[in-house]
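Hey, I'm writing a tutorial for new members on how sequence and structure tokens pair up, and I'd like a real worked example in the thread rather than a made-up one. If someone can provide the structure for the chain below, I'll link this post from the tutorial.
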Amino acid sequence: MILLACMVRLVCPRLDAIGPLSRGHLSRMPLTPQRPPTLGRTRSVLWVLLAVVLLLVFGVVGSHGQLSGRFGLDIIARRIPTTLTGEIKLDTPSEFVMLEFAVASKLVLTVPLGFADLSLDVAVNTAGPEHFVFKGNAALGKVDIYGLILEGFSIVPEMWFAVPFESVLDVNNLPNSVLIPPGDALFVRSSVTFTAALSGFNVKQLVMFEDVNFPNPGAAYVPLYYPPPQSPSLGPNYALGGITTVSWRAACGISISSVSGINAVQAGKSVKGYSASGRVLPGNWFETISVGGISLGDIPCAGVMLYDAYLGAGLTASTTQTMSGTVSFSARLSETMTLGSSMTVFKHPKQWGGLSVSTSLGPFRLSARLDQFELTSMSAGFNSSLNLGAMTGTYGISISGLERGMTGLSTRLAVSQGMFSGNTSISFAQSGTSFGFASLSTRIALRVSPGVITFQATFGRFGLTRAAVSTGVVF
């Protein structure tokens, strides 16, 4: 039923579902840009055909009991200001508050087709559909291509459709996510990932074709519509890019890896509720090479023996960044004490990354960092297991600071027994020149097969910041 509802919403987008949120507290006009009738009919036909194919595939396979996946429902609430002085609304906390809610649902289905697995990821929130993602996974194993033997060869195609969203400040001066009119589900990205092992080298090739202008849901979007009817240059702009990753590891422990991209960056691409690594950026290229695990053995240094010393190096260059490199070093001073350091090269002046030393004794851990031969920071931690009869758990505490006094203090507690589990954490941090309470978070989960119910609440310096109830079923 959830799938059918999503299909109806995607085929017949709600053009008038425009909330009272906008940039600078201005309401969006409840109007939609005019589109050519032919384009609208073409899109409708394509969505109908897509819905029919989905219903056939998932219906036929699901009727034979070969369907698996999960679905869930999330209800999220947060506090909004209720204190008034005259006619002015203040952020002053009060015990009894008004809450604003969001409801979201997600469905993930997987269909085994024998030669491959087909997955469907659909998410819907209070404002409407978020995304609609197809994903396949074909593990072909050993493949012979004109005498070239590829071990563990696999192909993972993906296709994204999503409704554009943006982040704004709502009428309560709180960050919110709002749908960008007219609210159609649009093609965003199609990618294919090839993975294989070749003569000891692990190779991964990502090929992406995507709309590089599709709005980022975590940022503000200037035009009122997407695509903007009056600015075609800001509308969909499709481009092709690729990222190649090659890695190799010798029996002696030395590892070499290379990541190169053409018309791409390693930063991820995001739509509302879904993201993946790699993004198309026309005109950009980059290259990253790293070498690690170079063993130097035991080295005497100033009367101190450094055990199991290792050396590593990295090199990075791109269209927007001049060549830069790092050299890193690590070793053991004893069975429980380690040190590490790094230095940047190919830059003027060269910069030393400082020296870090850490030691552990049972549940206790202490670390310190020296910069320019001055002790600038220090942290300590304690972690222990709890055995409370039928209930088990862990407890931990960590402290950081030094140069500016104490800058952080946090403690964590997690317990579980049978179908019940819970955890809570409290932290204190430095804000400006004062040190005080920062946050308290509590999470309780009840697992009743095949479902799970989770309750979560987070409190900040000025009271409740977020509360959520999540339910999910795995089948």
